[in-house]
Design goal:
With about 325 residues, this protein is of the alpha/beta class. The chain has eight helices and 18 strands.
């Protein structure tokens, strides 16, 4: 399936705890979050009201709103716009807690000619005259993500007209964005380490999305902590180098797909302390600065980590 039109299809609002996405006129799910679909029929679980909307829409997707997912799979249906144009068309989406699209999402859509007035935010189950379902360019096969030629076209469109800002090497830092539940203790030692090696320290939150694209496009050597940050190398030159400082031991399937797609030269620093309960999306994380010359004040980092860990998990 590249594109399929479903007459009288229903789009459900986005709720992780219940089926969501697009259901055909017989109630069968045909698209869920991202590249997935379920085997459920909404008529078996939903007895509430279904709103009627006599318009034709293109299904943009279920938007989680997390930046890392936004720039990877959530916008991977946009290749359709490159072939068919956006003028005169409506694009439907649902979102967690019915949250409107953020500035980055709106800017991404704008790069494809999709304006905010063309968006239909589905907040309650709604039956449309028709729903055009577009195949994702970001796919999953046998537990592995694959990025196809359509995804490549999306990537090229995002970078179109971007003027690169040249830098020899960039360290993407999270040291000024730590939030409760995602605390990285000890990263500052790696930030200082790479700064001494000539890397420019960049805090992405201080730049607009367009400014970030220019930074990524103009550099071919990066270092950063694992997670969302290295996903930004989607916008770096093919074959770029990246050193990823791992905050936990498991491999990130998204990053593996990006590494292959962009032919990245990847090296990893596995210097994290793992305790029960810490995973990619939670924290707190403790980085062990064994490769860093400057370890001054590290005792405070350990104490801070243990304090946050106890708050989150009640031990050690």
């Amino acid at each position: 399936m590249k594109t399929q039109i479903y007459k009288n299809a229903v789009i459900f609002d986005f709720d992780w705890l219940s089926p969501h996405g697009v259901f055909d006129e017989n109630g069968q799910n045909v698209a869920s979050y991202s590249c997935y679909k379920s085997e459920q029929n909404y008529k078996e679980f939903y007895k509430g009201e279904i709103l009627q909307d006599e318009r034709d829409v293109i299904f943009l997707g279920c938007i989680y709103g997390h930046y890392g997912h936004l720039i990877t799979e959530e916008m991977s249906r946009l290749w359709w716009v490159l072939e068919n144009g956006a003028n005169g068309k409506l694009f439907a989406y649902s979102s967690i807690n019915n949250t409107p699209l953020n500035k980055v999402a709106l800017r991404l859509l704008d790069k494809f000619g999709v304006r905010s007035e063309q968006l239909v935010h589905v907040k309650k189950p709604t039956r449309f005259k028709s729903v055009t379902l577009v195949e994702c360019g970001w796919k999953e096969r046998d537990g592995k993500f694959e990025l196809d030629e359509n995804y490549k076209r999306i990537n090229e469109q995002i970078l179109k007209d971007v003027t690169p800002v040249k830098n020899e090497a960039i360290y993407l830092s999270r040291t000024k964005t730590n939030k409760s539940g995602d605390l990285g203790f000890g990263e500052i030692y790696y930030e200082r380490h790479f700064e001494k090696l000539g890397y420019k320290v960049v805090h992405p939150q201080n730049f607009s999305f367009d400014e970030q694209l220019a930074l990524y496009a103009g550099c071919a050597k990066f270092a950063c902590v694992s997670g969302t940050l290295p996903h930004n190398l989607l916008f770096a030159p093919n074959g770029s180098e990246v050193t990823i400082i791992k905050k936990e031991s498991s491999q990130n399937r998204y990053q593996q797909a990006i590494n292959e797609f962009k032919q990245l030269k990847v090296s990893e620093i596995d210097e994290c302390l793992e305790l029960c309960g810490v995973d990619m999306g939670r924290g707190p994380f403790l980085f062990l600065p064994r490769v860093c010359e400057d370890k001054s004040g590290y005792k405070e980092a350990i104490l801070g980590f243990l304090s946050q860990y106890q708050k989150a998990f009640g031990h050690p």
